[in-house]
């Protein structure tokens, strides 16, 4: 069986286990998803959702965010961590959207990564979930599982994104990320995976690594 066929077989098995895997961030439009994803760096989605409930009432769009002061934004996002840098990036990002994109979040990865606080992970989250444009999101869970599954040997998120994008058909990219994240949170944990209770252990190259759980 070819590498892509093996990867898809494993992915299909995971999709049966996590049929409702989806973006866990709450949002109603591309702007809200962009902000929430920026805030999610080094922070749980649960905490971000609590914070954005208030944040989006105060700053519903880039116009309001661009007019905010650093102190105003910091106060609302403090509990997400790295709040000073995140506040600075959110305000500047909003300004850039108004100046260069008529206040709209662009549906283009190069335009997205040119914004303050936006890397390829954030850009792919926005593309895949707000615009239904395939994007391979490589977060800590995807990176860990891709290495354990033998899909990559790299530690570089950019290289892993490139390799997974070549390995899997484009239409699989967005949902693959959601599915791997769900399995990473539930079972294939760091530093030790729960192999003994893993429902797809027979498909995994690392099967049996952990016999204790």
Automatic annotation (TrEMBL):
Give GO MF terms, alphabetically: 4 iron, 4 sulfur cluster binding; class I DNA-(apurinic or apyrimidinic site) endonuclease activity; DNA binding; DNA N-glycosylase activity; metal ion binding
Q: How is the cofactor bound?
A: Binds 1 [4Fe-4S] cluster.
Instruction: Give UniProt keywords alphabetically.
Output: 4Fe-4S, DNA damage, DNA repair, DNA-binding, Endonuclease, Glycosidase, Hydrolase, Iron, Iron-sulfur, Lyase, Metal-binding, Nuclease
- Might you name a Gene Ontology BP term for this protein? base-excision repair, AP site formation
Q: Which residues bind [4Fe-4S] cluster?
A: 188, 195, 198, 204
Family matches, as CDD domains: ENDO3c
According to its UniProt record, this protein's enzyme class is: lyase
Q: Which Pfam families does the entry mention?
A: HHH (PF00633), HhH-GPD (PF00730)
Cofactors named for this entry: [4Fe-4S] cluster
InterPro entries recorded: DNA_glycosylase (IPR011257), HhH-GPD_domain (IPR003265), HhH_base_excis_C (IPR023170), HhH_motif (IPR000445), Nth (IPR005759)
Name the reaction it catalyses.
Answer: 2'-deoxyribonucleotide-(2'-deoxyribose 5'-phosphate)-2'-deoxyribonucleotide-DNA = a 3'-end 2'-deoxyribonucleotide-(2,3-dehydro-2,3-deoxyribose 5'-phosphate)-DNA + a 5'-end 5'-phospho-2'-deoxyribonucleoside-DNA + H(+)
EC code(s) of this entry: 4.2.99.18
HhH-GPD domain location: 39-186
Write out the function statement from the record. DNA repair enzyme that has both DNA N-glycosylase activity and AP-lyase activity. The DNA N-glycosylase activity releases various damaged pyrimidines from DNA by cleaving the N-glycosidic bond, leaving an AP (apurinic/apyrimidinic) site. The AP-lyase activity cleaves the phosphodiester bond 3' to the AP site by a beta-elimination, leaving a 3'-terminal unsaturated sugar and a product with a terminal 5'-phosphate.
Q: Which HAMAP family match?
A: Nth
PANTHER family found in the cross-reference section = A/G-SPECIFIC ADENINE GLYCOSYLASE/ENDONUCLEASE III, ENDONUCLEASE III
Instruction: Give the UniProt family note.
Output: Belongs to the Nth/MutY family.
What name has this protein been given in UniProt? Endonuclease III
Which source organism? Desulfuromusa kysingii
